[in-house]
Design a protein that fits this description.
The complex is a heterotrimer of chains A (325), B (167) and C (360). Chain B has 167 residues and is mostly helical. Chain B is built from one helix and no strands. The longest helix of chain B is centred in the middle third of the chain and has 151 residues, at 13-163. Chain B is rod-shaped. With 360 residues, chain C is α/β, with parallel strands linked by helices. Chain C has a single domain, classed as Alpha-Beta Complex (Spore Coat Polysaccharide Biosynthesis Protein SpsA, Chain A), CATH 3.90.550. In chain C, strands 8-4-1-2-3-13-12 form a seven-stranded mixed beta sheet. The termini of chain C are far apart. The chains are: A alpha/beta (325), B mainly alpha (167), C alpha/beta (360). Chain A binds chain C through residues 25-26, 156-168, 170-171, 173-174, and chain C through 226, 248, 251-253, 299-301, 337, 339-348, 350.
Chain lengths: 325, 167, 360
């Protein structure tokens, strides 16, 4: 495993976030399997890439997932891995909803802000890239100023993935549902695949950090942000794969009668509004120090925490937004 | 007839011959004409017969024409009726075809939904099988633990009795 | 992979490991007799066919009050080469520790996993103690003929109970019978005579080629390790575990192929086939567990410590090991993540099927 940060910038930065909390059952196992698979495919296709992992709100008295990740891939010399561990105090400081246990998208912003790749892909730890996605990346012909999306195919929960390969991913018998994406916004499981060039990702300033009352639909909100910023949104033309329909789907029914109590926030929030993140987005002003191989710790500092409420950053995009809706 | 003597001095001999010739010619011509007349009369009778025949034929033809016209009108009338019927049938056929297309679309939709339902059934069965197997394991584990716990409790209560401790 | 054996170096690695399991408990009434004569026959034939092999025998939870098979076998089968045998005796406490059904008398497939995990052969055949290898099977076992990532199956021919037996107990009485145990011989004529068939053989049907599956499963060692042996997650039954292995095999991308000839089994009292009806209407009491569990529909992922990896091994004698009890070697009582839906693979048959419960 290479500790990234040195050497020429890769073509692609892949950003994911998590922590050692066994979320969804065997979180680490699923994460490592998917990363091994994707990394092997990217290497085989000759796509230079780095993997940026952001550990948000690590659990006290448990090994850091970033450390376990480094151990798992210690012998994989071809993997350029950088991890960022965020001081748990940031979660409390940024929280506008005590029910939210994990600020997935602020964590991803930490990664986006520090990405080195020409193109930045935010995804999740249990997503497998398809052959078509690998082929598109291999062409190195992605256009700047375009947001690429991919439809997520959900394979059956509890599927045996101990020996996963294309023949398993591509077999329709294993697919439970296809999360279709449609213009103009191409939302629907968008958090699993948002690919954009580095410069544009910095201009947009990542995901919405202004609205922190929910994390659900923050990904779709990003698509709206891109749309009203005149960034074309395009289906990359190939799927990604996920095992199971996801924890949200599994638990959603429990909160139908009380959406405000959900651990992802109230699903009914107006996720079509547009935002402008402040200069400190992605904990840009957080002091950093290296704590392990390729692992940087973002220490807590109030200077890195923006205003609790900043209503002027909720903006109206006018006509563009109306067209999309 | 002997030529009257010229002495009488009535007609010169050359004139008389000429007249005689003319008379003969006229008689011959008259005979021919009479013959011709007779022929014409005969022809005329023939033609008259023919004309009568033709007239008869004409009358017949006229009657036939009238009959044909009548039939024609009848056929036209039938044709119009058939056209109307054909039109009705065409409309019926169009309606049936539309219904068929609708049924085909419905059938395709039902087939699609059936395929999806079958797919859902397969998925549900697979999930159910996995759940039932997990339940088997849990049941087995619960019973084993129950057995171990009882054994433990029995041993403890046995020890308590031996030592005189209240159980 | 940590096979243990005193025998041989890498250069002497056997082509085939034959993994068997049993104990001196009179399973099926006269287990020892049947085992020894079968072992004699198979050992002789494997040698005659020039097949480099080893026997890996797992003596699971042997009864304390009886001699162990390891202590009897070399006298009973004098021609058996000790150098070709590795014997594992497994501490009895493992049986209780692993059980999810007190009625199960024997964890046949966990025992086989112990052997598979430690086998040294390039190919590993799991079979049973009273299964005779047929000629076509022996031909196929010749080095170089087998392929990796293929599960080989063989049809089982069931023979009448009296095949190959002299009625010693009638002629000489019990004492002489004990002395002559293991000396009963079976010949090819006994096995191959159609008159000796107890019933018409059941055909093996693609894609699973199931049917007396546990009597013949041959796979390369690497693939056996990749799938981590037989199902150790579901321990409430031993019936169907062999069939379930075929589901796992297809789900893992392995092929299943008929090796091209039969194996032979002599009927005996206590065999499942003859005893199945005895538990009609009360399957929950059967010593093999519930026949109707979804062995055809679900799959499994064993933990990496399958086959009692961490059982402390004590060397008793050359080729003789005792696997002592340690809770470290016992997998979790319940490991529901190990119950998985078998994965379909493009171009291959569906690995799992739903089978409704058979009527009692």
């Amino acid at each position: 495993m290479m500790s990234g940060g040195a050497g020429p910038a890769p073509y692609l930065t892949i950003i994911a976030t998590g922590r050692n909390d066994d979320f969804g059952g065997d979180f680490n196992g699923r994460f490592f399997r998917a990363l091994h698979f994707n990394h092997q495919q990217l290497v085989a296709a000759g796509i230079t890439h780095e993997f940026v992992f952001v550990e948000w709100r690590p659990i006290d008295k448990r090994p850091l997932l970033a450390s376990l990740l480094a151990d798992e891939f210690a012998d994989v010399s071809s993997l350029s891995l950088r991890s960022f561990v965020v001081d748990p105090a940031y979660h409390e400081a940024l929280s506008l909803n005590p029910r939210l246990q994990f600020q997935e998208f602020i964590a991803k912003n930490v990664g986006i802000r520090r990405a080195r790749g020409a193109f930045v892909l935010t995804t999740n730890t249990d997503i497998y890239f398809s052959r078509g996605v690998i082929a598109r990346l291999k062409e190195t012909a992605l256009e700047p100023g375009v947001l690429y999306r991919a439809a997520r195919h959900d394979l059956m929960s509890a599927l045996d993935v101990s020996d996963i390969g294309w023949d398993v991913l591509e077999d329709e018998r294993n697919c439970e549902i296809v999360n279709a994406i449609r213009p103009p916004l191409f939302t629907n499981a968008s958090g699993d695949f948002l690919l954009i060039d580095h410069q544009t990702s910095q201009q947009i300033r990542g995901f919405n950090e202004v609205y922190r009352v929910a994390k659900i639909h923050i990904d779709g909100n990003f698509c709206m942000k891109a749309y009203v910023s005149d960034i074309p949104i395009v289906d990359i033309g190939a799927p990604i794969y996920h095992v199971g329909r996801g924890t949200l789907h599994a638990m959603r029914g429990m909160y139908n009668a009380r959406p405000g109590d959900a651990p992802w926030g109230d699903i009914r929030w107006k996720s079509d509004v547009v935002y402008d993140n402040g200069d400190g987005w992605g904990l840009g002003f957080a002091p950093e120090r290296e704590i392990d191989r390729g692992t940087t710790f973002l220490a807590f500092d109030w200077e890195a925490v923006g205003p609790m409420v900043d209503l002027r950053r909720v903006v109206s995009a006018g006509l563009q937004q109306e067209k999309a809706l | 007839m002997k030529r009257p003597p010229r002495i009488l001095g009535l007609v010169p001999a050359s004139g008389y011959d000429a007249l005689e010739e003319q008379r003969a010619k006229a008689e011959s011509r008259a005979g021919k004409l009479a013959q011709q007349l007779e022929e014409y009369r005969a022809n005329s009778r023939v033609w008259k017969t023919k004309a009568e025949d033709a007239l008869g034929e004409l009358r017949k033809a006229q009657e036939a024409t009238a009959a044909a016209q009548k039939q024609f009108r009848q056929i036209e009338k039938q044709r119009d009726e058939h056209s109307r019927n054909a039109q009705k049938l065409k409309e019926e056929l169009d309606k049936v075809r539309r219904l068929q297309q609708e049924r085909a679309a419905e059938l395709a939709d039902l087939k699609q939904r059936l395929a999806e339902s079958e797919r859902d059934l397969v998925i549900a069965r697979e999930q159910l099988m996995a759940i039932e197997v997990k339940l088997d394991i849990l049941e087995g584990a619960a019973n084993v633990l129950d057995g171990r716990t009882r054994e433990l409790l029995t041993r403890r209560s046995g020890l308590g009795t031996e030592s005189g401790t209240a159980v | 992979m940590e096979p243990q054996s005193d025998a041989g170096t890498a250069a002497q690695e056997p082509a085939i490991s034959i993994v068997l399991t049993g104990r001196n408990d009179d399973h099926g009434v006269d287990f020892r007799t049947r085992f020894f004569r079968t072992l004699r026959f198979n050992a002789e034939q494997l040698t005659a066919y020039g097949i480099p092999h080893e026997f890996v025998f797992v003596e699971w939870a042997p009864p304390a009050q009886r001699p162990q098979l390891i202590d009897l076998v070399f006298d009973a089968v004098p021609g058996l080469d000790r150098g070709l045998c590795t014997w594992y005796v497994v501490d009895s406490r493992y049986h209780q520790a692993l059980s999810l059904n007190p009625r199960l008398e024997y964890h046949e497939f966990i025992a086989k996993n112990v052997g598979v995990r430690r086998a040294r052969g390039r190919f590993v055949l799991t079979s049973n103690c009273d299964v005779f290898l047929g000629r076509a099977v022996l031909d196929a076992l010749a080095p170089g003929r087998l392929e990796s990532r293929v599960v080989y199956r063989a049809q089982r021919y069931d023979l009448k109970e009296t095949v190959g037996e002299r009625r010693l107990e009638e002629a000489v009485g019990q004492r002489r019978l004990d002395e002559t145990v293991g000396q009963q011989r079976v010949a090819w004529t006994d096995l191959e005579d159609p008159e000796n068939l107890a019933r018409p053989p059941r055909a093996l049907k693609a894609p699973f080629l199931a049917g007396a599956t546990g009597d013949f499963l041959l796979l390369d060692r690497e693939s056996f390790h990749q799938v981590r042996g037989f199902n150790e997650i579901y321990r409430a039954a031993r019936f169907g575990i062999d069939r379930n292995f075929l589901v796992k095999a297809i789900s893992s991308g392995l092929s299943i192929v008929d090796i091209g000839g039969p194996v032979y089994h002599v009927d005996h009292a206590g065999s499942y086939h003859l005893a199945a009806d005895a538990y009609a209407g009360r399957q929950h009491e059967a010593p093999w567990g519930n026949r109707d569990w979804h062995s055809r529909g679900v799959s499994y992922v064993n933990p990496p410590t399958w086959g009692l990896q961490h059982a402390p091994a004590q060397r008793v004698a050359p080729g003789h090991w005792f696997l002592d009890f340690s809770w470290d070697a016992v997998p979790p009582m319940v490991d529901l993540r190990g119950v998985v839906i078998p994965a379909s693979r493009v171009g291959r048959p569906s690995p799992g099927r739903y089978a409704p419960p058979r009527s009692e």
